[in-house]
Amino acid sequence: MAVLAIAWIVPRVRAAQVPAEELLRHRATATGEPLPVPFPAPDFLGSGAPSLAGHVWIVNFIYTSCTTVCPKMTGRLAQLQRRLPREKTQDVRFVSLSVDPAHDTPATLAAFAAHWPADPRWQLRAPPADELTAIARGFRVAVAPSGIATDPILHSRLLTLVDGAGNVRAIYDGDDEQAWGWLATDAEALLAERPKDLPETGSPATQVPKNLLADLGCNGCHDRPTIAPPLGRRGVDDSYLRASLLTPNASVVAGYVPMMPSYRTTLTDDEVTAVIAALHALPAPPESATSATSALASTAEDPICHMTVGTHDPALTLRDGDHDVHFCSRACRDTFARRK
Ligand code: HEC
Is residue 114 situated within a structural domain? Predict the structure, then answer.
């Protein structure tokens, strides 16, 4: 049964097709240089998906219970959304597809989305498993089998940019901070490339942010203590907070995985000052919440995907000979176990 499930989940990339991973963009586009057309995007994004015809869109794959690469990707996506202001880029769409349809029900997705900035251009959906397989194949990204049919975890940090005619135009490594900058520029270039007589799709309603930190996407990570420490810790000064925002990985709070994106290029000096003021204005988190970090002792490297991971989750730890090995996800843990 498990073998069957794996065979069913793994997308079979046709021999002639170059996988998305090998088409990654490694540099910025020179001004005026058109983007190539590697391959057409799949025209089916799951039943009930709103049409994206005429839009420039960016697709990525996540799942809401993921505590590593997905919050990092979604945090950067929130930065990208700010970088592409709604007034000028109302025809851009951000499509995040969940790869965990069994767990990510519409209610789970809505609860997840509520922690991130409300952006009417963002679609978060979980296509059913069979449709997901076809969609992943269409984007030439791999589903890493977890061995459990109901829990296919796709381990992709790729972002795919699609033009108004439905062609994939570039693929970016979401782990590469620079690539997000290229993506913003390329998306704007594709908007300008569209025929001028295209019907206006109307301005998505602007929503008033709950508050500055929510609008910036800080809560998406900092609301979940397993991902990031609660904000509002007392006894930290402005320079510490400034450094936390601009060079977050220079000093990492003990026990946490360094995944906070830098806000160096996305916030102005005045905005940084406003964020610091907003942090000081937060109620102090309970002592137990901040000291809980000491229970999350340290970090290790996942031997499968080579990400830095926490060592606190027994479900993501395996004993190998005389030492423990730690993983970012069940998918990596199971891959490791199978190779043994
Ligand atoms: C992708 C997840 C993510 C996002 C988005 C994010 N952070 Fe963080 N942040 C973390 C993690 C993980 C840590 C702890 C590890 C470290 O220090 O880098 C952290 C640490 C911090 C710290 C230091 C906390 C302490 O107790 O010392 C501050 C302050 C902070 N973040 C503020 C912010 C603000 C403000 C935003 C939004 C503008 C934000 N973060 C967005 C994940 C995130």
Answer: yes
- Whole-number Å distance, alpha carbon 285 to ligand 1 midpoint, is 14
Domain count, the chain: 3
Regarding whether 120 and 95 lie in a shared domain, the answer is yes
Range of the domain at 322: 297-339
Residue that terminates a domain, selected from 139, 166, 193: 193
Report how far ligand 1's centroid is from the alpha carbon of 73 (Å): 14
- Residue-by-residue DSSP string for 285-330: PPHHHHHGGGGS--EEE-TTT--EEES--GGGEEEETTEEEE-SSH
Predicted pLDDT of residue 288: 61
pLDDT at residue number 146: 52
Give pLDDT < 50 ranges for the chain.
Answer: 1-15, 148-152, 202-209, 291-297
284 CA from centroid of ligand 1 (Å): 15
Nearest CA to ligand 1 atom 30: 244
331/260 same-domain check? no
Please report, for residues 30, 31, 58, 314, the alpha-carbon distance to residue 333 in angstroms, rounded to integers and kept in the order given: 41, 44, 29, 11
pLDDT for res 108: 92
In a domain, 109, yes or no: yes
The letter for the amino acid at 284 is: A
Residues 6+ apart with CB under 8 A from 13: 19, 137, 140, 142
Question: Residue 290: its pLDDT value, please?
Answer: 53
In a shared domain, residues 236 and 268: yes
Please check whether residue 44 lies inside any domain of the structure: yes
Ligand 1 interacting residues, C-beta cut-off 6 A = 71-72, 75, 213, 216-218, 220-222, 227-229, 231, 233, 236, 241, 244-245, 248-249, 252-253, 256-260, 263, 275, 279
pLDDT digits (tens, 9 = 90+) for 163-179: 988 999 999 999 888 99
For residue 299, what pLDDT is reported?
73
C-alpha 253 chain-centroid distance: 21
* Closest C-alpha residue for ligand 1 atom 27: 253
- What are the backbone dihedrals phi and psi of residue 243, each rounded to the nearest 5 degrees, phi first? -65, -40
* Same domain (yes/no): 159, 233: no
